[in-house]
């Protein structure tokens, strides 16, 4: 396959410093490990119709910061840095800084924002982890947030001279177009897309009915109301109802992407607290997980959705793991076309991937997803008493990212 040929030519450069090698090394506990002591997310609201449609990004952040500080009892004066992953709100640094101050975080605590589209939240975790590794930060917050209601994807503008380059032209095209290009080029049928979409919808519906998402959702008080349950999940989705939906973009490619087999658009936020193992033990913090490493790759913009097939092998190789070593994968479902191709090309059992559904069912607030998948994956590992999480996503304009985490929140050691 073209993807495999491209992967074989891709240089495997290290993306994270001090990455341990091999499963025994990764599972070791060292004082300077970067660990996660808190990982929670908000409930998600449907774009323009849901519970957060009238909530601005700064209000959402303020509520998340306040709820986190209250639940963890973390002294905010001990926070060294905050990084917020977000994509399209105007002046994101100003609004993030204002939200932190309004939540009671002292003005000596700095903040930054990062935008690498769908991986922005994972990049926030990566930025804080790298700062801790470098000795520049001891306790940091990594946040992912977006309101697709307030700030939907704008139409990118480039100059005529730049647009003459074919790949430059492709990298600013609508994401739906890339979905159809993947489906057409890699022969991902509408039936296959709907099959994977039904898996996502069914798993998320079952998880919500069982109350599973309550383990990862921190209730937020916003404008006098408590938001604690996703309103994006659609019970009752069937193969027949998916098949009956009309293509959203019938003039592009095979016209196989629908509102049922593409990620939902929504509003939400998620947060992780990171520190060193030594500092966590000193402060009496519960250690949930260990951050291991991350990787970022590029690919053809036209087929941006297939990037996890490059990002996942890269991050596994740089830490000396095999795909079979991973207990849970959280791979973003931007579109069923690219998700189906990635799953089948990677050869990972679907039972290990998004066991409680993914973005097709739960929704995909762009900046939130990178943290949300870590929160969701770690919560699932705790339930399963598993060890290793790999999270990955494609990124608009032709990129992909992946990360490795070790679960430490289990009662009985697996190994």
From TrEMBL:
Protein's UniProt keywords contain Mitochondrion: no
Domain Thiolase N-terminal, chain residue ranges per copy: 34-277
Keyword Translocase among UniProt keywords: no
One of the protein's GO biological processes: fatty acid beta-oxidation
Active-site residues per Swiss-Prot or TrEMBL entry: 118 (acyl-thioester intermediate), 364 (proton acceptor), 394 (proton acceptor)
Record-annotated Thiolase C-terminal domain positions: 286-405
InterPro entries: Thiolase, Thiolase-like, Thiolase-like_sf_Thiolase, Thiolase_acyl_enz_int_AS, Thiolase_C, Thiolase_N
Keywords per UniProt: Acyltransferase, Transferase
Pathway: Lipid metabolism; fatty acid metabolism
An annotated Gene Ontology molecular function: acetyl-CoA C-acyltransferase activity
Chemical reaction(s) catalysed: an acyl-CoA + acetyl-CoA = a 3-oxoacyl-CoA + CoA
Ranges for region Disordered: 1-25
NCBIfam families noted in UniProt: AcCoA-C-Actrans (TIGR01930)
Family named by the database record: Belongs to the thiolase-like superfamily. Thiolase family.
Protein's UniProt name: 3-ketoacyl-CoA thiolase
Record organism: Mycena albidolilacea
Lineage, broadest ranks: Eukaryota, Fungi, Dikarya, Basidiomycota, Agaricomycotina
């Amino acid at each position: 396959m073209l993807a495999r040929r491209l992967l074989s030519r891709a240089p495997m450069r290290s993306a994270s410093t001090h990455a341990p090698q091999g499963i025994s090394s990764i599972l070791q506990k060292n004082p300077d490990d970067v660990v996660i002591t808190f990982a929670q997310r908000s409930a998600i609201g449907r774009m323009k119709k849901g519970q957060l449609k009238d909530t601005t990004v700064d209000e959402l952040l303020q509520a998340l910061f306040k709820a986190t500080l209250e639940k963890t009892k973390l002294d905010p004066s001990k926070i060294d840095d905050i990084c917020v992953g977000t994509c399209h709100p105007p002046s994101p640094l100003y609004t993030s800084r204002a939200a932190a101050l309004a939540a009671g975080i002292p003005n000596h605590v700095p903040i930054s924002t990062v935008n690498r589209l769908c991986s922005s939240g994972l990049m926030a975790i990566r930025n804080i982890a790298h700062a801790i590794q470098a000795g520049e930060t001891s306790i940091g917050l990594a946040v992912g947030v977006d309101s697709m209601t307030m700030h939907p994807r704008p139409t990118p503008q480039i100059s005529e001279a730049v647009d003459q380059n074919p790949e430059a032209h492709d990298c600013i095209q609508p994401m739906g177009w890339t979905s159809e290009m993947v489906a057409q080029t890699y022969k991902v049928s509408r039936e296959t897309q709907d099959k994977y979409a039904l898996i996502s919808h069914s798993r998320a519906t079952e998880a919500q009915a069982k109350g599973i998402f309550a383990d990862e959702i921190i209730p937020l008080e916003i404008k006098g109301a408590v938001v604690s349950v996703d309103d994006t999940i659609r019970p009752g989705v069937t193969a027949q109802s998916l098949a009956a939906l009309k293509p959203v973009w019938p003039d592009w490619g095979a016209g196989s992407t629908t509102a049922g087999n593409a990620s939902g658009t929504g509003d939400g936020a998620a947060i992780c607290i990171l520190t060193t193992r030594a500092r966590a033990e000193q402060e009496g913090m519960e250690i949930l997980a260990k951050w291991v490493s991350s990787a970022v790759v590029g690919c053809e913009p036209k087929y941006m959705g297939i990037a996890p097939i490059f990002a996942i092998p890269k991050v596994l190789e740089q830490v000396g793991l095999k795909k079979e070593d991973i207990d849970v994968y959280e791979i973003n479902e931007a579109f069923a076309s690219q998700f189906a191709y990635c799953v089948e090309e990677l050869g990972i059992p679907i039972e290990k991937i998004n066991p409680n559904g993914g973005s097709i069912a739960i929704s995909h607030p762009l900046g939130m997803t990178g943290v949300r998948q870590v929160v969701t994956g770690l919560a699932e590992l705790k339930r399963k008493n598993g060890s290793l999480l790999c999270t990955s996503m494609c990124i608009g304009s032709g990129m992909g990212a992946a990360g490795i985490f070790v679960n430490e929140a289990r009662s009985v050691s697996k190994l």
